[in-house]
Amino acid sequence: MRLSSKKIKIFLVLFIIGVSGIIVAVFVNYKFSSYKPEMLISAIQTKANLSIKKVHQTATRDGIKEWSLDAKTAHLIASEKKAVFDDLTVTFFLENGENGENVYLRADQGVLNTDTQDFTVTGNVVLKNKEYRVESDELHYKHNKRILYSTIPIRISGDLLKISADSMSFELSTKKTRLTGNVEGSFSDNISL
């Protein structure tokens, strides 16, 4: 069965008209939604996931910075009210906000609850300040209480001590640490308790 050149021409013309119509429809839809950004934002929030590279987020309370987060990538999942971060660092500002003493957190991944600002970090977790270093596989942060805690084993090291425990909590507002379960450690002669 051979198609005549006239049928081929008609098919090609109809095909070109169809493709042109699709292109025009996409262009008109894009132009319409760019004039109404609230419709575009609403569509993203209810249907789509959003991925961003090189993210920086800061949490403030009563005008005072409490923490800032930097990550290689972030994936917002609006339907679950969470953001998933890869290769992240968090700086917690103590007492005096940004100019005071800071605590630094680093982890491979993190999941932030976008409603509560609570988050959990996992993978090569390191929490440190100028004197001590805490290592674990997982760490949690309760934003409303400003508490960092781990329910799995941690290791603390510094120039004057080495400690391990089954779990830990650290209150950022009071700078108090609580260790529980199989607490073991060694201290230098120079440490004052």
What's this model, at a glance?
With 193 residues, this protein is an alpha+beta fold. The chain has two helices and twelve strands.
Write the layout of secondary structure elements.
Layout: H1 5-35, H2 37-47, E1 49-61, E2 64-77, E3 82-93, E4 102-113, E5 119-128, E6 132-142, E7 147-150, E8 154-158, E9 161-165, E10 167-171, E11 176-180, E12 184-187
Antiparallel strand pairs: 1-2, 2-3, 3-4, 4-5, 5-6, 6-7, 6-8, 7-10, 8-9, 9-12, 10-11
Task: Spell out the key features of this protein.
193 residues; alpha+beta; twelve-stranded antiparallel beta sheet; 12 strands
Write structural notes for this entry.
The protein contains two helices and twelve strands. The chain is an alpha+beta fold. It folds into two domains: 31 residues; 139 residues, Sandwich (lipopolysaccharide transport protein A fold). Strands 1, 2, 3, 4, 5, 6, 7, 8, 9, 10, 11 and 12 form a twelve-stranded antiparallel beta sheet that branches.
